[in-house]
Amino acid sequence: MAEVTNKQVVLKDYVSGFLKESDMVLTTSTLKLKLPEGSKGVLVKNLYLSCDPYMRDRMNNTGSLSYFESFKPGSPITGRGVAKVLDSGDPNFKEGDLILGITGWEEYSIITATQTLFKIQHTDVPLSYYTGILGMPGLTAYAGFYEICSPKKGEYVFISAASGAVGQLVGQFAKLLGCYVVGSAGSKEKVDLLKNKFGFDEAFNYKEEPDLNAALKRYFPEGIDIYFENVGGKMLDAVLLNLRGRARIAVCGMISQYNLQQPEGVHNLTSLIFKQARMEGFLVLDYYHLYPKFLELVLPHIKEGKIVYVEDVAEGLESAPAALVGLFSGRNVGKQVVVVSRE
User: Fold this and answer.
1) I need a labelling partner for 334 at 20 to 30 A (CA). Which of 117, 273, 307, 315 fits?
2) Per residue in 14-49, pLDDT tens?
3) CA-to-CA separations, 19 to 120, 165, 258, 278, in angstroms, rounded
């Protein structure tokens, strides 16, 4: 029975404050390329791993998120990824199948929670897309925009962290619907990407705006109908001052807050009353039943070139810690993906 070395990214200890590369360590173990006798799981070779902001919360001693428990120090980090099945004790999967789901940050993983896995049927698009546009971020964009925001043609849409894994897709959905779309990002390169590649009507670099309220008034003189929230903090406060009547805010994430030991407060919530606006948080886990419907919408758009997607690809498992840390300084341009293996 073949035994292989298995590189792994392990969490050293619970993290306090800003995440650092040194909070993770690359180790090597050995693994038999055969499931234990009687196992109903799957043994997989990991191909592509997804770097996602929510993973930072799982590094706290007590994760504030109720839908995922904290990582265990001394054990490999886990996250969403694309993998190839090498051995299966589950009748729904066979050797050679490509799957999408929660896997380890390692070269090979044994996954026992096979009910959470999706078998990849469409392989005529890049497999890495299943960590992004065709995976959790894509479904997040779809559910947050269509299900939470109930958009209508001609509405005014603002998206923060708009060049990221979710934001770039929300903006394109909004443009396809006939909305006016503005995005914020943290560099000139990202702003150019929003306007020239993703088709946003306008975009601005929030780091160059000393007064975010004034910036939003400049781009939305009549106010904002839909805000897709990825950032939190000062940006959310400024948006609240610029809402139109019956505005909707989909709270997808608050990346500005995840590394803070004392999160920032929000001051302008009374705007929700005066504007009769609705602000709603959501978890993509509640919308996985819509995944087939989502694929029906987005796959043809990708193949026809009506929706484009930008990835920031880090090569090799050893690059994963830096790639994850980079999310919180905006170092990535587009969806951050780690390539473990291309076969």
Assistant:
1) 117
2) 999 999 999 999 999 999 999 999 999 999 999 999
3) 32, 20, 10, 33
